[in-house]
Amino acid sequence: MKQSITVTVNGQSRSAEVEPRMLLVHLLRDVFRLTGAHVGCDTTSCGVCTVLVDGTPVKSCTMFGVQVDGRSVTTVEGLAANGAMHPIQEAFKEEHGLQCGFCTPAMMLVATALLEENPDPTEDDIRWAISGNLCRCTGYQNIVKSVQFCAEQMRQASAGAPS
Amino acid sequence: MFPSNFEYFAPTTLDEALGLLAEHGEEAKVLAGGQSLIPLMKLRFAAPAVVIDINRVAGLDHLEESKRGRGFLRIGALVRNATLERSDLLADRYPTMATAAPLISDPIVRNQGTLVGSLCHADPQGDFGSVMLALDGEVVVKSTAGERRIPIKRFLDGPFTSTIRPDELAVEARVPSPEGRFSGTYLKLERKVGDFATVGVAVFVSTERGKVTRAGIGLTGVGATNIKATEAEAALVGNRLTDATIDEASRLAAAAADPRTDVRGSADYKRDVVRVYVARGLQELSGARAA
Ligand SMILES: Cc1cc2nc3c(=O)[nH]c(=O)nc-3n(C[C@H](O)[C@H](O)[C@H](O)COP(=O)(O)OP(=O)(O)OC[C@H]3O[C@@H](n4cnc5c(N)ncnc54)[C@H](O)[C@@H]3O)c2cc1C
Ligand code: FES
Ligand code: FES
Do B252 and B235 form a contact (C-beta atoms < 8 A)? Predict the structure, then answer.
């Protein structure tokens, strides 16, 4: 039996009728047509399906869509605002934090959640935060650099901003 | 991968949850962090007709010490592993659990997974089972018929089998508060970040005037359930932690292990890792030189 749910996705209220067994990643990709959350391993291991639920990173292949009824979900499509890229997107571009790009949406979301909690992370903090996300291309080096670059830019921006 | 279909309930109160379990128990599964249940459902190793999602039930996310009796730590069914990993209370007072938490899976899985869910899942490779055995914890379960408090040794019944009944909900785990001088740690051999243990060892001791008053040793991944190395524990109580007593306890712990050869290593290898890790853990606790 289908169930109706209402979710705030990237700031917009969206409703859908779904079977309870539909995984969050399929709700996002197939129903809401947001294909930024990828499916890699489908076994809770690779992290490429990661999205933020109420700001917290979650593997969307391991949560049911009905579980986010009434909650707020952020996908990579929600990072850019008013036609401008998010600082984390600028940073991945600047520091060559991606090659094929398959892991990138998840990496950027995990990084934004980390920086929200800890604006000045050490390299170890960053490596800890992305330890649930596999990348088969970059060797992680430039991903770490991108997050460091972003942290630096965001700190400078907030130091320069009138309080 | 798609799980088979099910009816979904998301109760918001404990009474409502217990009512649903009373009605659907046999054909239902409780959904907590979902980090074990959902993978099993996707593989169709589990195909419950009813899923009772407890994530919206109020009053299950407490992590606190109770001063009742001799005092104990209470870990509610919705306390996430990420919370345990960051808790100062755990770091100060329950070091065995505090060291195990960040070694479980990866940070994203830990945002969801719960200690109580891990105990109910009763995976012999689960790390918290050993921690609970070392600390002599118990699980509090409730149903519409009332409440039971089940010592962890009786709670873990076999591989993926606990003694909780289908109509019961585990509401919290409890661990007695430490007394006197105490220390504890968890050592885990894993092939890579996020992997299950090849071998895991939980150790805990409390001492008075240099002598051990309580010792706890739990073993992960080397038997059909987590194993409490009771003979090794008994060998320590009343004694000082010396090279000789540590040696004896680690040999007894290795003898209590019942490992199987698999992709992670041979039985002999794992048994020897138990010996080395118990010795290393106890050396660390005694503040003596490393093993
Ligand atoms: C990639 C990966 C790696 C992992 N690595 C490790 C590891 O190294 N060590 C380790 O210990 N664990 C590991 N886990 C397991 C993880 O810690 C699980 O989250 C945990 O074992 C189960 O907790 P949960 O809250 O997710 O339970 P769920 O998946 O929601 O439930 C598990 C089972 O317990 C039952 N249950 C849950 N809560 C209750 C309750 N309150 N009352 C009654 N029944 C209940 C459910 O019905 C189900 O049968 C890993 C998981 C993944 C996906
Ligand atoms: S697809 Fe979800 S963790 Fe790999
Ligand atoms: S850039 Fe290809 S997987 Fe990370």
Answer: yes
